[in-house]
Specification:
Interacts with moesin/MSN. One of its GO terms (cellular component) is plasma membrane. The protein is mainly beta. It contains 3 helices and 42 strands. The chain folds into 5 domains: 135 residues, Sandwich (Immunoglobulin-like); 94 residues, Immunoglobulin-like (Sandwich), CATH 2.60.40.10; 88 residues, Immunoglobulins (Immunoglobulin-like), CATH 2.60.40; 80 residues, Immunoglobulin-like (Sandwich); 81 residues, Immunoglobulins (Immunoglobulin-like), CATH 2.60.40. The protein is 11% helix and 49% strand. The strands form 10 sheets. Strands 2, 4, 7, 8, 10 and 13 form a 6-stranded mixed sheet that branches. Strands 28, 30, 31, 33, 34 and 37 form a 6-stranded mixed sheet that branches. Strands 11, 12, 14, 15 and 16 form a 5-stranded antiparallel sheet that branches. The N and C termini lie far apart (165 Å).
């Protein structure tokens, strides 16, 4: 609202008028348009006298002005063409710069209230303005009538702005129609309806009719999932002062979805046994948003509780199932995936069966050597059994055998195989039972050497094993001193270990003894033996060399040839005895 203008009275008074009781009345510099508060009668009389003096002061000099001067001072209405909310009030000022104005007033059909007047102006308040109207200010200047008018525009905010309900789920790739309804609002020429996706304008249309309705169509996509849609009413009064008023509907969130036309992939066994646990897997690709999908898994009328995992657009549901006895026979596994307003389903057939056995029994599992043992294997009515390679005569019949327990049967496993055919599939099941045979202790000579030759102060291990059931305790004791030698662990061999040992295997079923002779050689005697051996070898070598030498000498002394006769005494061969003596003396 523009400020009200007031005329300034600059008349000169010889002296300020005096009110009764000594009150001095001063001319005000300006008049306030605020609601005036009534005062006493004395103050009213002073005000009237002051106004009268002002009129006399200001009007007398103007009486001589011509009639033509009044047209130079038009009457003004302020504010011009105001805009105000319905039911509001408005301050209106009618003013002129005419030197001698008369009878300034406001003509209107609205309820008005005079606020004050003075020379050249009059102020009024319009109350409870509910509709558009026109007001006229009128008055006289030097006898000529003056008029000025202004229009009043009343605006109303829309009573209600609503966005039509969005579908619970909108398929991706299909058109979505948006609707907006607005009740009330004025002036309609400045009222516009805007459909929004977030802050993005989808459509802008003028409000027409009551209620006003606008529509817009958009293609739904994956990016619209979770988007907020609203309708906004805009009352644009910016050119006329108040500004832009907006009223927005409550937002609605859109949920878009995409569900492929293919069925889920269902993985389940063809047959299951009553009481057994097995997995079921259901997978579907191409879902959007996969996190919103609902999965149901069922075995017949039994609802399962699957664990759901999501990776991008792929959903996988897995469940662990235990078949019940009352479900024996043909059953169906169903996987149903629902997203939005659509669903996809997959089914698989399976057979629930009972596989009893095999049951393997021994008449005794712990027997003494030489005892008779009966072995029996049984199974269900349709099950074929085989015991240690021997097939039963027919399905459902037991397989049997009898053995005489020996030492070699200790720890023996009896094996029974059961076979059942279900829907062309052959199922196998095995069971084993171990036989324990009680027999006395024994020491295998092959695993316990009976003669040992070791050297003094060397490290060795006495290897000796015993068998028996129950397992015997084994120890080797020196025959003379009763000293025990370690078995199976390294020890330092000394001369006192030399001798015969009694290796005894003892158990509750008896005792078995094996003699082990341990010969320990002294290191000194070994050196002497080596020296004697060396001397013997040297002596033999010497004798052989002497014999070779003697044989050679004999051969040379027995053969001489004389080429020419000589006068000297002929030589004679020496006697063998002399040769032997010479050889002996040479040997000495």
């Amino acid at each position: 609202m523009q400020p009200l203008h007031f005329c300034n009275l600059n008349c000169w008074l010889p002296s300020p008028p005096l009110c009764p009781a000594g009150h001095l009345l001063k001319a005000p510099s300006s008049l306030s348009l605020a609601t005036m508060t009534p005062s006493s009668l004395l103050q009213g009389a002073c005000r009237t006298l002051f106004i009268f003096q002002l009129l006399v002061c200001c009007l007398l000099p103007l009486g001589a002005q011509s009639q033509s001067q009044s047209h130079e001072f038009p009457l003004q209405v302020e504010p011009q063409n105001p805009v105000l909310p319905a039911g509001g009030s408005l301050l209106v000022n009618c003013s002129t710069r005419c030197p001698h104005p008369e009878l300034i007033t406001l003509e209107t059909s609205l309820l008005k209230e005079a606020l004050g007047e003075d020379r050249g102006w009059a102020a009024f308040r319009l109350l409870n303005v509910t509709g558009n109207s026109r007001i006229i200010c009128s008055g006289f200047c030097n006898g000529s009538q003056m008029t000025s008018s202004s229009g009043i525009t009343v605006y109303r905010f829309p009573e209600r702005v609503e966005l039509g309900l969005l579908p619970p789920w909108q398929p991706v790739g299909e058109d979505l129609t948006l609707q907006c309804h607005v009740w009330g609002g004025a002036p309609r020429a400045q009222l516009t309806l805007v459909l929004l996706r977030g802050e993005e304008e989808l459509s802008r249309q003028p409000a027409v009719g009551e209620p006003a309705e606008v529509t817009a169509t958009v293609l739904a996509g994956r990016g619209d999932y979770g988007a907020n849609f609203t309708c906004r009413a805009e009352l644009d009064l910016q050119l006329r002062g108040p500004g832009l008023f907006q009223n927005t509907s409550a937002p609605q969130q859109l949920r878009t979805f995409a569900l492929p036309m293919v069925a889920p992939r269902l993985v389940a066994p063809l047959s299951v046994e009553v009481g057994t646990t097995w997995p079921v897997d259901c997978t579907l690709d191409g879902l959007f948003p996969a996190s919103e999908a609902q999965v149901q898994l069922a075995l017949g009328d039994q609802m399962l509780n699957p664990a759901v995992t999501i990776h991008r657009d792929t959903l996988r549901a897995t469940a662990t199932v235990t078949a019940r006895a009352d479900q024996e026979g043909e059953q169906q596994i169903v996987c149903n995936v629902t997203l939005g307003s659509e669903s996809r389903e997959a089914r698989a057939n399976l057979t629930v069966f009972t596989f009893l056995g095999p049951i393997l029994n021994l008449s005794e599992t712990n027997v003494t050597e030489g005892s008779k043992v009966n072995v029996t294997c049984t199974a269900g009515a349709r099950v074929q059994v085989m015991l240690d390679g021997d097939l039963a005569r027919a399905p459902g019949e037991p397989a049997q055998l009898q053995v005489t327990a020996t030492e070699g049967d200790d720890g023996r496993y009896f094996f029974c195989n059961a076979t059942l055919k279900v829907d062309g599939e052959v199922l196998h099941r095995n069971v084993t039972v171990q036989l324990r045979v009680l027999y006395g202790p024994k020491i295998d000579p092959a695993k316990c050497p009976q003669r040992l030759a070791w050297k003094d102060r060397t490290s060795h291990v006495l290897q000796c094993e015993a068998r028996g059931n129950p397992a015997p305790q084994l120890q080797c004791l020196h025959e003379g001193s009763g000293r025990e030698v370690p078995i199976g662990t390294p020890f330092l061999v000394k001369l006192h270990h030399n001798g015969t040992y009694h290796c005894q295997a003892v158990s509750p079923r008896g005792m078995y003894t094996l003699l082990v002779v341990m010969h320990v050689q002294d290191r000194k005697s070994h050196s002497i033996s080596i020296l004697i051996g060396v001397l013997v070898i040297l002596g033999v070598v010497t004798v052989i060399a002497s014999l070779i030498y003697i044989f050679g000498m004999q051969k040379r002394s027995g053969n001489y040839r004389v080429n020419q006769p000589s006068a000297s005494v002929p030589l004679k061969p020496k006697q063998p005895e002399q040769t032997v003596e010479l050889e002996l003396s040479a040997a000495k």
